Amino acid sequence: MAKVAVDHTRYSKQLYHSLGDGGALVMSLDSDGRPNPMTIGWATLGSIWSLPICTILVRPSRYTFSCLNITGDFTLCLPYPQMRSATNFCGTHSGRDHDKLAECNLTGMPSESVKSPGIAECGVIWECRIVYTDDLNPDTLAPEIIRSAYVGDDYHRFYYGLVERCCADPNFEADFFRQSEES
Ligand SMILES: Cc1cc2nc3c(=O)[nH]c(=O)nc-3n(C[C@H](O)[C@H](O)[C@H](O)COP(=O)(O)O)c2cc1C
């Protein structure tokens, strides 16, 4: 069934849950226009500049890093709990060596407001245009976070995405809850 437009905050609770439990999926395009999904655990959804902003943290070593810099936008896709094998795969394999979308039997879904496609099998999709980036400055980060989150100098770049559109499966909430109970 086709996804319907929803307020970008409607499923923030489910997003927050997924970020800490298996991750969500970020989609961007590589230089050949090939979509590349990457699992993400560190992201925020909130209000900055009185605008709906989704911020994702991506390390320079990721193929997604170069994709984001090329595409200028991304989609944040919220998987159902039963998609755990896909989020595991997309979080442990690189698009440099794999066509992750095909290998996970996932379907790219054209977005309405950005170039990056969404993932049809996911329940909610945030279409985001990058309006600001910022490279983490370790000199100003609390030392205990440096110790716990960084072993080398692969410091994240923060990508601030203006949420241009959010859409969801009509039965998302009930299906997500049922699958959470089953898994
Ligand atoms: C649960 C989970 C959460 C992750 N969160 C992030 C993240 O927030 N930022 C990041 O740069 N990498 C994160 N990763 C690692 C990337 O998903 C992984 O390195 C992936 O293979 C990169 O794919 P790519 O090279 O196609 O971009 C996470 C991995 C997992 C399994």
Descriptive notes:
By secondary structure, this protein is of the alpha+beta class. The strands form 2 sheets. Strands 1, 2, 3, 4, 5, 6, 9 and 10 form an 8-stranded antiparallel β-sheet that branches. Strands 7-8 form a two-stranded antiparallel sheet. It has 6 helices and 10 strands; from the N terminus they run βαββββαβααβββαβα. The two termini are 23 Å apart. The protein has a single domain, classed as Electron Transport, Fmn-binding Protein, Chain A (Pnp Oxidase, Chain A). The chain is globular and about 50 Å long. The longest helix is centred in the last third of the chain and has 11 residues. Bound molecules: flavin mononucleotide. Flavin mononucleotide (FMN) binds next to strand 3, strand 5 and helix 2.
How much helical structure, as a percent, in the residues?
25-40%
Q: Look at the structure and name the CATH superfamily.
A: Electron Transport, Fmn-binding Protein, Chain A
CATH topology label: Pnp Oxidase, Chain A
Q: Tell me the radius of gyration.
A: 16 Å
Q: Total helix count?
A: 6
The biggest sheet, with number of strands, parallel, antiparallel or mixed sense and barrel status, is: 8 strands, antiparallel
The level-1 CATH class:
Mainly Beta
What is the CATH-assigned architecture?
Answer: Roll
What structural class should be given to the helix and strand makeup? alpha+beta
Order of helices and strands: EHEEEEHEHHEEEHEH
Number of strands: 10
Count of discrete domains: 1
Model regions low in confidence, pLDDT < 50 over at least 5 residues: none
Ligand kinds:
flavin mononucleotide
Estimate the global geometry from the Cα principal axes: globular
